[in-house]
Design goal:
With 240 residues, the chain is an alpha/beta fold. Helices cover 44% and strands 11% of the residues. It contains twelve helices and seven strands. A seven-stranded parallel β-sheet has the order 1-2-3-4-5-6-7.
């Protein structure tokens, strides 16, 4: 929950020329709902994508305060689903994330599905079981063709906004065992390899290249570092 609509437009207008000049990488920004139309307009002449930070799974109805996939359709390409803050603060469940994935795909949106464990779970050795369980529940009943169009973001909760981060090798090991291998089991190798898997959690311009060199890490879901002009340096660092 950062930046007013005017501030969001001013920010993307400032950084868009430099971002648009970076080859070899796909880039998207996910502003608050109220800023999506204006940001999308500001970026219309660029190759920078736009996404939403959340959505509800119903198309319409008496769900005061929610935003439906039909409302986002045509405004943006991506939608972040199941972020740990949504799960922790607003009670979102794996089953709800699964419904949102189906709804997003039905409206031409690309889901960015977030999974990740708490510090207590990590220290108790429960990471693989917990994260793989989240993946299985989120992708339940999808076809390989549907799954192949999705993005998964592994974000250890203990690394979000804390300055802590999983090492590149730690992130790779967890992503391979708890995400990629599970997706391969569910949908086959071709679909699994088509799914982009991101790492998120205190990603910075100083550590992004280490993550991008890992074979199962295809990108990054960047939080606080995306709110500053130095985000451009971070994106450049992702091209390895």
């Amino acid at each position: 929950m950062n930046k007013t609509a005017d501030a969001a437009v001013a920010f993307v207008t400032e950084i868009a020329p430099e971002l648009n000049a970076i080859d070899g990488i796909d880039i998207a920004v996910c502003p608050p709902f109220i800023a999506i139309p204006a940001v999308a307009h500001a970026l219309a002449a660029t190759r920078i994508g736009v996404g939403a930070q959340n959505m509800y799974y119903e198309t319409s109805g008496a769900y005061t305060g929610e935003v439906s996939p039909a409302m986002l359709q045509g405004l943006c390409r991506y939608v972040i689903l199941g972020h740990s803050e949504r799960r922790a603060l607003f009670g979102e469940t794996d089953e709800g994330v699964n419904k949102k994935i189906f709804a997003a795909l039905a409206h031409g949106l690309t889901p960015i599905v977030c999974v990740g464990e708490s510090l207590a779970q990590n220290q108790a050795g429960e990471t693989q079981a917990f994260v793989s369980g989240q993946v299985r529940a989120a992708f339940a009943n999808l076809s390989p063709e549907q799954a192949a169009t999705c993005v998964v973001a592994y974000e250890p909760i203990w690394a979000i906004g804390t300055g802590l981060s999983a090492s590149a090798q730690q992130a790779e090991d967890i992503i391979r065992a708890s995400v990629r291998d599970v997706l391969t089991e569910l949908f086959g190798d071709a679909a699994s390899q088509a799914i982009r898997i991101q790492y998120g959690g205190s990603v910075t311009e100083d550590n992004i290249a280490d993550y991008m060199r890992q074979p199962d890490i295809d990108g990054a879901l960047v939080g606080g570092a995306s709110l500053k002009p130095t985000f451009v340096k971070l994106v450049r660092g992702a091209v390895v």
